[in-house]
Amino acid sequence: MSTPNTSALSQASQSIRKEQQQIQRERILSNPSLMIGAVIFLLIVLAALIIPSVSSIDPNAMVVIDRLKPPSLAHPFGTDEFGRDLMIRILYGARVSLGVGCSVALLSCLFGTIIGIYASYFKLLDHILMRICEGLIAIPGVLLAIALMAALGASSINVIIALTIVYTPSVARIVRGSALVTREQTFVEAAKVQGASSARILWKLILPNVISPLTVQASFIFAQAIISEASLSFLGAGIPAPAASWGNILQGSKQVLQKAPWTVIFPGLAVVLCVLSLNLFGDGLRDYLDPRTARRKK
User: Which pTM was predicted?
Assistant: First the structure.
């Protein structure tokens, strides 16, 4: 049976929990960057998932008589140089760009975390891994991605591999920096004295303290990967035609820019909105996870 003291403690803990949840909700709702970025990005994702699924239009079906038609009820974004519906192609391209961006963000954060965590704890690995990372960072990202794509060949899988190699070193440096600070904390020293294994210290004590900066960095890498994929496809080194991608849609549209400017405007707006929403979300998430950043901005 519960005693009066136990019941009072339970009620007090529930009250504190509700207050904390209310504070968290207020912090989220009072963060315009986080809210606006999340809403815009969610709308883009929902449009890319739902509209092509319920539409019967083939994104690669060429209808010559509909070539370069301006926006209308039948074709809200107009048609391209082959008579293909531009809105459907942009939404199918959104699936490709979002898939590539998400995959690159996850893989680069995974490999970057492993490299950064071990480099922060073992000095020999630190010298080897960080010199490799610094060498890769010294090469402009787009040039490195183009060189890798030239070696691997044009495909969506190879784009993911190339961009993962490009962005992993920067993640590794961020994780290493946060892990070095955590490694000097008292609770880590206490775990060493108690005989805790290196694996336990790394993954149970240090890793949780690098999740916050890693999460923020993942949102920015997501946005950068979308731009990089579009750049590679625009240059002909990314997603091969006729598969729809924001980059190769823009690449094909440059030939008819003066006759049909909508073929550039709409895919360009798609890239801008998606990248802007992710950057806003990343800024808002950084302020949410580290309130000191928001106070410094004020």
Answer: 0.87
For residue 181, CA distances in Å to 117, 178, 192 come to 12, 5, 16
Which residue pairs from 142-146 have beta carbons closer than 8 angstroms and sit at least 24 positions apart in sequence? Answer: 142/228, 142/231, 142/232, 145/228, 145/232, 145/237, 146/232, 146/235, 146/237
The answer to whether 88 and 55 are in contact (CB under 8 A) is yes
Q: Specify whether domain 32-54+77-297 bears CATH 1.10.3720.10.
A: yes
pLDDT of 96-114, one tens digit each? 999 999 999 999 999 999 9
- Helix H, strand E, coil C: the string for 226-280 is HHHHHHHHHCCCCCCCCCCCHHHHHHHHHHHCCCCCHHHHHHHHHHHHHHHHHHH
Instruction: Please state the domain extents for the chain.
Output: 32-54+77-297
How many other CB atoms are there within 10 angstroms of residue 165's CB atom? 18
- Burial of 249: CB neighbours in 10 Å, binned 0-12, 13-18, 19+: buried
